[in-house]
Amino acid sequence: MQFYKAFQYKQWANAELLQLGEQQFSKLPESDATFFVRILNHTTVVDSLFISRIIGEPEKYSGDNTVETPSISELRQTMNEHDSWLGNYTQSATPEELKRLVSFKFIDGAFGQLTVEEILLHLLTHGSNHRGMASRVLAENGLERPKDTLTRYLHETEPTRRARAGTEH
């Protein structure tokens, strides 16, 4: 799968989760509501850190989360900005760009090196992991979880994939 399509899926899955979370937010105990927002905020802060590293600009954060917990609306805006940037970037990234080695310091001060391709894969898996953690908070409280599978996304965005082989539309 192309990175561009994978990041389109990531943006869709993030939006699905935030929409369901916001609709049911008042039904969550305070500690779970805070965890829901903070774990997703962590993913967008990490996205920002690695975007800065890819483009060689100063990082906007000095930790892997913010001190203040944003509102879901603020979180949605920041996540959408980062997801849009990643989608646009991956749409035009060349094979040579994906193989480019990026040297940086992790938040803990340790030195790191990853190719752009490895960074992008990290952001996809990292985001998926933490979406699952946030989704579990909904499930543990008897609330609706998103049906944010890749197959659902592909069938919604490419409806012809639901057709049986040999049938006409």
Automatic annotation (TrEMBL):
Q: What organism is listed for this UniProt entry? A: Photobacterium halotolerans
Q: Report the PANTHER family cross-referenced here.
A: PROTEIN DINB (PTHR37302:SF1), SLR1116 PROTEIN (PTHR37302)
Question: What is the protein name stated in its UniProt record?
Answer: Damage-inducible protein DinB
Keyword set, alphabetical order: Metal-binding
Region of interest (Disordered), residue spans: 148-169
Query: Which residues participate in a divalent metal cation binding?
Result: 42, 126, 130
- Pfam families, alphabetically? DinB (PF05163)
The molecular function terms of the Gene Ontology recorded here are: metal ion binding
Q: In terms of domain of life, where is this protein from?
A: Bacteria
Q: Does the keyword Metal-binding apply?
A: yes
Record family assignment: Belongs to the DinB family.
